[in-house]
Amino acid sequence: MFKKIYSILVITFLAINTNSGAQIVINEYSCANVTNYADNFSKYEDWFELFNTGTSPVNIGGYYLSDKLNQPTKWMIPTGTTLNANARIIFYASGRNITTGTLHTNFRISQTKVPSETIVLSDNTGTIIDFISVERTKQNHSNARIPDGSNVWKVCASPTPNASNIAGNTFIRYSATPTFNLLPGFYTGNQQIQLSTTEPNSIIRFTLDGTEPTISSSPYIGPISITAVTVIKAATFSNDPNIATGFVNFGTYFINVNHTIPVVSVAANQLTNLANGNGNLVPFGSIEYFDINKVRKTTGYGEFNRHGQDSWANDQRSIDFVMYDELGYNYALQNQIFSLTHRDEFQRVILRAAGDDNYPAAHHTSNAGSAHLRDAYVHNLAKAGNLNLDVRVGTKAIVYMNGEYWGVYDLREIPDDHDFTNYYYGQDKFNLQYIETWGGTWAEYGGNQALTDWNNFHNYVMANDMTDPAIWDNVTSQLDVNSLADYIIVNSVTVCSDWLNYNTGWWRGLDSSGTHKKWGYILWDNDATFGFYVNYTGIPDTSAYAPVCNVEPGVGSLSDPEQHLDLLMKLRENPTYDHFYKSRYIDLMNTIFSCDYMLRTLDSTVAVIDPEMTEHAARWTGTYAEWRANVARLRSFIERRCQAMPAGLNSCYSLSGPYPLTLDAYPIGTGTVTINSLTVTEFPWTGNYYNGIDINLQANPDIFNDFSFDSWETTQGSTILPGLTSPIVQMNITGSDSVIAHFIQHTVSIPVLEQNNFTAQVYPTITNGITNIEFYLPQIEDIQIKINSISGRLIWSTTKQNLNPGQYSMQINLTEMNISPGIYMVTINSKNQSSTYKLIIQ
Asked: What backbone phi and psi angles, to 5 degrees, belong to 426?
């Protein structure tokens, strides 16, 4: 719970080896089950088979299976499981943890991770009796003991799960993969590529068009001359019938080509047919990612499939890529591709051709004015503002398909994918309720139960009094109300006209050990923004001057089939939340939705792709001049929009202003100031705020350098309550003003009898989710931290812990702890001291 500052000793576990001689053995396994053997959920999961080599039954109930040698008791075989003589049993390594009927372990297996993963069998004492290091196989192949129970392992092109392992269509191994003398990449001038293999009695066959090499492909007889962008794929074909054709080596060579952004090369049979509009195709093929420095960073094999709906009518189309560990090349794109996230493994990405904002979009009338950047621009704004939303972070990239230039794309992360939720929130695919609306509404994860749970929750909110504290607590324990506010605000600011009845997603996780356990929202396809494209949602006003309450129920006849806006308005019957929603809108207009920030971000986004757009436009029969005119049109709309919004708040919410409010802290570096939902750390800072709505302020002194809050000072005398010496105040302004938080440094002389006293800090104490607790102990103390409601009801508590002297810190995610907005008291207790702090959760 508490994190003390100290050095961490990293312990490395060393794998052990063991000999297989047991009666029960691992007999066959497949980590390449793409389409071959469906489980009881109609899914194609990894599987392995145990076999009883003896002449008598064995009760294997209480035995263990694992994927880790140093954790041999990871999953216990259910009690009462008996394996008869010469019999076999199948286990799916799906991670589902099912112990009745068809058995599924609580772990999954990868065949391409380094070091190799291991399948481990242990007896009921945890003693390892058999294990096998997983070796890569090709699609739908397995590795098996031939015959059953023997010490000879072979590659099976026709796996035999739950059946006798036979010698037919088996191989002693795969042929060696060819090597290239020159690394794939960017070169000036023609290149000669030499292929080689260590496989005796064999021939290398290759292709130059991105397709897979077959027995009919060109044989390699000498250096290959490369004079233009070319994808080479090569495989070794052995003349020995006992050796299977091995894995393909592949690489793209760019000759006399220069790009200023990353490059993605994809290659597969029928890939260009898919990209040219045959959306029924699902080819498997290769992907290579070259960073901005033209270095190939990661590669793999996987599935390509259609991405998009309306945008599929364009000539340049979007494509999903899904990496398949089962193909034997890689389990993920392994690189920190996106600057806005630290994530460095991506099993699934989108090659997005800017969606409906594609330029030139085949010159369709509805796409007139397309700028090739709206959706990515909106998502990057949301990410930069740390909004309570999941977004598709991305990077601009050039795409080549089978060696052919395909133009400027957005390489994007995918939020509605279990690898995304598992990485960021610890919620895997078996613990998701993920609902989406695009024309109709369905559960991407969680099935009918997800829909039922959401509808029941929505009905509960609409039928109850949001001013009742108990009811409000129940609602906010299930819904991230800050996420709903941010979702509505970002679509309102951008005048989105293709959401609510389309492109809307919300979800929660069910794993108690993970986060995001409340319903929260995602951003999805924000192309129809800033006055562009079709108004599918029926937004009353799609101009730059649309009022900020343009999307609230009762204004026009917009389409909101799942009633997200009704939900917002019902929640706003709670005065605290209504204040939060309005002040959050104001805060964001002072940060990511200010004219300065929006225009600066747009200009920097345009600058990234500008050098590439001449070639892109020519490829898709547009012109650079027309694209620049479309960008100017977009910029003009954004400029008019951000200038019009401040006055729009007045008409919508009976406010006056806005007025410049400058915050400062004195002396510099002695503390920070939280204003509503923002914590300001650099001073002076100026934002625009309103009369008619309280401004929440909190002074956060640097107590560990012995600073404490002294007082507030206003230059124009605006009202501050409860008083100038309170660190947490509400302020109302009637004109421009400046507020200074004064901090003072002091030295505390602690009498001998009070050596047990501690210093502590809780910040921010006005928060919409995260608060930090720090304290210093001069001696050993029993410490307990509690959070109580204003009425004294215990909300949360740590256990009492005996802590050594030192400095401690902890961060509390109040949203994930299901603590509702309101006023709370944080108390830090020791044997002889109790310190209490007021906490406002918005």
From this structure: 70, 35
613 vs 398: CA distance, rounded Å: 10
Helix, strand, or coil here: 119? Answer: strand
Residue count (the chain): 842
Residue 740 burial (CB < 10 Å; 0-12/13-18/19+)?
A: middle
Q: Are 131 and 26 in contact (CB under 8 A)?
A: yes
Whether the pLDDT of residue 11 is over 60: the answer is no
CA–CA distances in Å: residue 270 to residues 210, 281, 299, 735: 9, 8, 20, 65
In degrees and rounded to multiples of 5, residue 271 shows phi and psi of -65, -45
Quick check: 507 pLDDT over 80? yes
Question: Which whole number is the average pLDDT over 674-697?
Answer: 96
Closest CA to 607 of 630, 584, 631: 631
The C-alpha atoms of residue 302 and residue 12 are separated, in whole angstroms, by 33
The token pair that represents 96 in the structure block:
């589902």
Name the pTM for this structure. 0.86
Q: What is the DSSP letter of 524?
A: -
The average confidence (pLDDT) of the chain is 92
Of residues 763, 769, 767, 717, the one with CA closest to residue 743: 763
Task: Specify the 3-state DSSP secondary structure of 231.
Answer: strand
Closest CA to 266 of 395, 400, 396: 400
* Whole-angstrom distance, CA of residue 763 vs CA of residue 679: 10
Alpha carbons 38 and 29: distance in angstroms, whole number: 14
Half-sphere exposure of 579 (CA within 13 A, CB side): 17
- pLDDT above 90: percentage of residues in the chain: 83
| Tens of pLDDT, residues 95-125 | 999 999 999 999 999 999 999 999 999 999 9
Q: How sure is the predictor about 821, in pLDDT bands with cuts at 50, 70 and 90?
A: confident
Q: Which of 47, 30, 50, 132 shows the shortest CA–CA distance to 92?
A: 47
Q: Give phi and psi for 31, each to the nearest 5.
A: -110, 20
Of the candidates 116, 162, 159, 121, the residue with the CA atom closest to the CA atom of residue 136: 116
Share of the chain above pLDDT 70, in %: 95
Where are the strands (E) in 575-615, listed by range?
none
Structure confidence at residue 162 (pLDDT): 95
Q: Which of 676, 694, 671 is nearest to 740 (CA)?
A: 671
Each residue's pLDDT tens digit, 221-276: 999 999 999 999 999 999 999 999 999 999 999 999 999 999 999 999 999 999 99
Who's near 390: CB < 8 A, 6+ residues apart?
A: 415, 420, 424, 520, 521, 522, 523
Q: Could you give the count of Cα atoms lying within 13 Å of 484 in the half-sphere of its Cβ?
A: 24
pLDDT at 19 over 70: no
Name the H helices within 204-279: 271-275
Domains and CATH numbers, the chain: 13-171 (2.60.40.1260), 174-256 (2.60.40.10), 438-589 (no CATH), 655-747 (no CATH), 752-842 (2.60.40.1930)
